[in-house]
Amino acid sequence: MYHIQQMNIHSSMTVGQLVQEMKHAGVLGAGRIARAVSIMLEMAQDSTYTVFLTMAGPMVPGGLRNIIRLLIEQKIIDVIITSGANVVHDIIESLGYPGRKASLSLDDQSLRAQGLGRAGDILFEQEGFEALENTMRQILASISDSGLTRISPSHLVVKLANYLTDDTSLLHAAVQHEVPIFVPGILDSMIGLHLWMHDQMTPLELDSISDLHRLSDLVYDADKVGAIILGGGLPKHHALGVNILRDGLDAAIQVTMDRPEAGSFSGAPLSEAISWKKIQPTKNVADVIGDATILFPVIVAAVIEQLSNQDDE
């Protein structure tokens, strides 16, 4: 029988050492974080893995933008599936309009009058979305002027990334490092609205089926597939669903605050996906319950630290 060890901390300890203490305890949230670090480290070290990162919720405006870019640059992730909103906010930040922290007392009517939108305690300036509209108008016009009448969401993301000159953009980093970005729900974002507006004047068909062809090729060609899932929603389901083609993922971690009681896929534990052949029968899964903007930086920091320590040996 495993005996729980009490965690110890000291003033000079690293994040990786803290996670080791969590591993020694091995239970509850601490045990889940340590397990997630171990699985993600395995994915990073095993070159036979094709690693999917999925993002739902405000991960870019919530402060994870540089961390995702680091994972791209370190070649820890190979494929990104995200909501349209995260693409929108990456572009808006690249155009010089990062989110602002709100005060504790919020009056949404006053915010509206000031041209500010709110997501939790993050404020967004209307000017940023106006800059996005101008940018999208130019990009979509250049696409149509080139003679294209059909474009896949992943190809559109490449066009958007190539327009950006900001080196902090995760879209830009993904294109540079040949990490495809899939946005299955792109119409459910401001980009979708701009596509519709452009289509009123110059027809441009969004070809989502070709992205499924591309995703299926990635899955079929992979020796192993792992997934890092932030939040739930369509990105999570898209990654797990396409892996039915190979009887499921080999490994996965998810960080979510969604609950399982209502039967939603967002809140479902990863073990549930085994019954659907979306994950293979495996012990290489970890459900970490909590806010990804708190917990995922801890997981990544511990993984990067261990990889760096191994490089130094």
Helices and strands in order, then pairings?
Elements: H1 15-25, H2 28-45, E1 49-55, H3 60-73, E2 79-82, H4 84-94, E3 100-101, H5 108-113, E4 116-119, E5 122-125, H6 126-145, E6 150-151, H7 153-163, H8 170-176, E7 181-182, H9 190-201, E8 205-206, H10 208-221, E9 224-230, H11 233-242, E10 251-256, H12 272-275, E11 285-289, H13 292-312
Parallel strand pairs: 1-2, 1-9, 2-7, 6-8, 9-10, 10-11
Antiparallel strand pairs: 3-5, 4-5
Helix pairs in contact: 1-2, 1-13, 2-13, 3-8, 3-13, 4-6, 6-9, 7-8
Provide a descriptive summary of the structure in words:
With 313 residues, the chain is of the alpha/beta class. The protein has a single domain, classed as Deoxyhypusine Synthase, CATH 3.40.910.10. 51% of the residues lie in helices and 14% in strands. It has helices at 15-25, 28-45, 60-73, 84-94, 108-113, 126-145, 153-163, 170-176, 190-201, 208-221, 233-242, 272-275, 292-312; strands at residues 49-55, 79-82, 100-101, 116-119, 122-125, 150-151, 181-182, 205-206, 224-230, 251-256, 285-289. A six-stranded parallel sheet has the order 7-2-1-9-10-11, with helices on both faces. The protein has a three-stranded antiparallel sheet with strand order 3-5-4. Strands 6-8 form a two-stranded parallel sheet. The mean pLDDT is 90.
